Amino acid sequence: MLRQNGHKKVSAVLFLCAMNAIRSPMAEALTRHYFEKSLYVKSAGVRKGYLDPFTVTVLDEVSISIAGYQSQTIEELADWEGFNFDLIITLSPEAHHQALELTRTLAVDVEYWPTLDPSENQGSREQKLAAYREVREYLGERILARFGE
Questions:
Q1: Within-domain flag for 32
Q2: What average pLDDT does range 31-59 have in this prediction?
Q3: Residue 15, Cβ neighbours under 10 Å: how many?
Q4: Which backbone phi and psi does 97 adopt, to 5 degrees?
Q5: How many whole angstroms separate alpha carbon 118 and alpha carbon 17?
Q6: Are 88 and 109 in contact (CB under 8 A)?
Q7: pTM
Q8: Residue 1 within a domain
Q9: Above 50 in pLDDT, residue 2?
Q10: At a CB cut-off of 8 Å and minimum separation 6, what does 127 contact?
Q11: Whole-number CA gyration radius for the chain
């Protein structure tokens, strides 16, 4: 079944990144905010990470709270609730490689949304926050374009 935007209809999506600390939890929170009633969404990392405080701050700026979010690896997610996603959206090269490996045994579609890691930005607190805001806006636009009607 196709949606108006030309993509297959998705009911469950996983955002996968390197550490589930910035980009993937941000994407999960934004997707929940926009499509809470129509889309099941989770995020995970290839490796264990910890939620980045700048991520919490830039989401709070748009009234999205992820306080209490617990980062998890792809293995922890699979162990905890199984792996029943229609789509994996990868946000880093490492995550993309991992997702493609999963397609050897799982019937899941994979999309790669190359997303810069804002934690690599140097400078003042405001310059760092600006980098995180850019990622938030980029992901928000991609999510609305991908899953919106």
A1: yes
A2: 94
A3: 30
A4: -60, -45
A5: 13
A6: yes
A7: 0.92
A8: no
A9: no
A10: 121
A11: 15
Check whether 17 has a pLDDT greater than 60: yes
Beta bridge partners of 89: 15, 111
Q: H helices then E strands: how many in the chain?
A: 5, 4
Query: What CA–CA distances, in Å, run from 145 to 32, 47, 76, 132, 136?
Result: 15, 28, 29, 20, 14
Amino acid identity for residue 117 in this structure: D
Total domains, the chain: 1
Q: For residue 111, what are the domain limits? A: 12-147
pLDDT in tens, 99-113: 999 888 888 999 999
CATH number (domain holding residue 122): 3.40.50.2300
Does residue 17 belong to any structural domain of this protein?
A: yes
Residue 2 resides in a domain: no
Q: What is the mean pLDDT of residues 33-51?
A: 93
